[in-house]
Amino acid sequence: MFGLFSKLFSNKHLIIILFSLIILVIVMGLTLNHRELTWPEKFLKDTISLTQGILYKPASKIAGFFEDINNYTLTYKENKSLKKILHQYSQVVAELNQLRDENKRLKEMLDYKEKAVNQYQLKVGQVIARSPDRWNNMLIIDQGSNDGIKKDMAVITTQGLIGKVYSVSSFSSTVQLVSSSTDGGFIFAAIQSEPMTYGVVEGYDKKRNELQIKKIDLDAVIEPGQLVTTSNLGGVFPSGIVIGKVVRVEEGENGGLTKTAYVQPAADLYHINEVYIVMKTNVQSINSGTVQESEETPSKEVK
């Protein structure tokens, strides 16, 4: 092949012909706008245009094909990068919302503890377990006997009462919720009517989220909206812890000799993350000008 090209270019006549064609094309370009083309020039121009037209379309399609592939590759890489950034952003937003909610809860607990310091001595507990099949009955917190926790201590949130300590181990405790249906009657309630009305929390309507306060005197004047708090009559809880508000009142059991009040719990019994255990009740009494503190002594559970 190389020998063939060497032989061709060694031919002086061929070199002269090629050089002449180049000169002819240059001259045609310079004189194109100043005269009519001769038929050889027209033939040469048409041949070149036809050749360019034949070669241009396939070449442009091939170039466009490779350009499309390149654009597709760039788009794929960009899309993959954007998905990764979006996933990271969603994760950051979720963590931010979680931290915001936790910060809000902790701030509410701190404010509540500062306000309740004259009434109760409280210990913070974290919920560490809750069984789905007993969601309305029990939960487990990370405070136990080594932390001073005792059976029957009241357990509250910043909103109100949620239950009592049911059992205690060294490093954790089981809390029985007020919505528990396995062991009702351990909460004595005081309805803030005039005069004060007392009853016992015995039952929970899961669909309506209502506690049932039974054994209320038939002559008691109770109205919706009245506040319900704990009573120390049962010897289990201190007085004054908010339970909820009366929603409605109906005739009770025992042949209509008592009333039953339905109470909307003040505390959210479904979403519970942090709790307070009431360690002591600060009872202020005037005795020779001094304030005395008495520790709440739990009694046996009232059935």
UniProtKB/TrEMBL annotation:
InterPro entries: Cell/Rod_1, Cell/Rod_MreC_2, MreC, MreC_beta-barrel_core. The chain crosses the membrane at residues 12-32. It holds the Pfam family MreC. Keywords: Cell shape, Coiled coil, Membrane, Transmembrane, Transmembrane helix. One of its GO terms (cellular component) is plasma membrane. It comes from the Bacteria. Residues 82-123 form a coiled coil. One of its GO terms (biological process) is regulation of cell shape. Residues 127-278 form the Rod shape-determining protein MreC beta-barrel core domain. Involved in formation and maintenance of cell shape. Belongs to the MreC family. This is Cell shape-determining protein MreC. It comes from Tepidibacillus decaturensis. The lineage of its organism: Bacteria, Bacillati, Bacillota, Bacilli, Bacillales.
